Amino acid sequence: MKYYLLSQRLDLLGEYGIAAFSTKMLRSYFPDEPEVSFKKSLDRGVKSGMLERVCRGAYVYSREFRRQIHKLESIAVVLRAGEFSYISLESALSEYSVISQMLLNHLTVMTTGRSQTFQTPYGTIEFTHTSRSETEILDKVIKQPERPLRIASPELALSDLRRVKRNTQMVDMDVYEEIIREKNNPL
Predict the structure, then answer these.
(1) What is the pTM of this model?
(2) Which residues are CB-neighbours of 35 under 8 A, at least 6 positions away?
(3) 14, burial (CB in 10 Å: exposed 0-12, middle 13-18, buried 19+)
(4) Taking each helix axis from N to C terminus, what angle separates 35-48 and 3-15, rounded to the nearest 10 degrees?
(5) Could you please report the per-residue DSSP string of 43-74?
(6) What tens digit of pLDDT does each residue of 112-168 get?
(7) Which positions ≥6 away from 2 have C-beta within 8 Å?
(8) Edge-to-edge strand ranges of the sheet holding 20-22
(9) pLDDT of residue 119
(10) DSSP 1-24
(11) pLDDT of res. 187
(12) Whole-angstrom Cα distance, residue 75 to residue 21?
């Protein structure tokens, strides 16, 4: 494929806020391209700096990706395409200030897919498998329009932490209970 064609299609996708891709996704945008030519085009895109390979099977369109706020979340969506995933465990509890540690460059995600950890230039993405059904999860996660992933409610995040037997000693239960009280008794 021609370099300009790759650039054109990535620009178009970037207009819709799409800047992270799996190899499979990129391949679907060029269905008539022979496999050898497609792979060479990806390599040229990486060498030129247009594309960045962030981990095995995942790329970002450099120009658009640098504008994104939730970089690790965008990559996580691509890595677990077709699976239900949401921010939980330490990442969610940190956002709710229930644990004192700020998780910079580390994202903890519950997924119906398999557990796996990915190291990227933007940080670590840690997927932990959940056997909960999507319907069981949906009522307990929050969708924020500007974010690629839903985030667990404080109750679900703490339940997930306990369920996967992670360190619960870092949880400030006084803060947690105050958040739950405020949530249940809004002014």
Answers:
(1) 0.91
(2) none
(3) middle
(4) 70
(5) HHHHHHTSEEEEETTEEEEHHHHTT-S-HHHH
(6) 999 999 999 999 999 999 999 999 999 999 999 889 999 999 999 999 999 999 988
(7) none
(8) 20-22, 58-61, 51-55
(9) 97
(10) --HHHHHHHHHHHHHTT--EEEHH
(11) 66
(12) 8
Residue 177's Cα: distance from chain center in Å?
28
Within 10 angstroms of residue 172's Cβ, the number of other Cβ atoms is 14
**Residue 112: which residues within 8 A CB-CB, separation 6 or more?**
83, 84, 85, 129, 130, 132, 134
> Which among 131, 31, 132, 116 is positioned nearest to 79, based on CA atoms?
116
At 32, the amino acid letter reads D
Question: What are the structure tokens assigned to 173, written together?
Answer: 């239960």
Contact assessment for residue 110 and residue 54, using Cβ atoms and an 8 Å cutoff:
no
**CA 37 – CA 30 distance, rounded (Å):** 10
Q: Residue length, the chain?
A: 187
Supply 163's token pair: 């369920």
Q: Count how many Cα atoms sit within 13 Å of the Cα of residue 4 in the half-sphere of its side chain.
A: 0
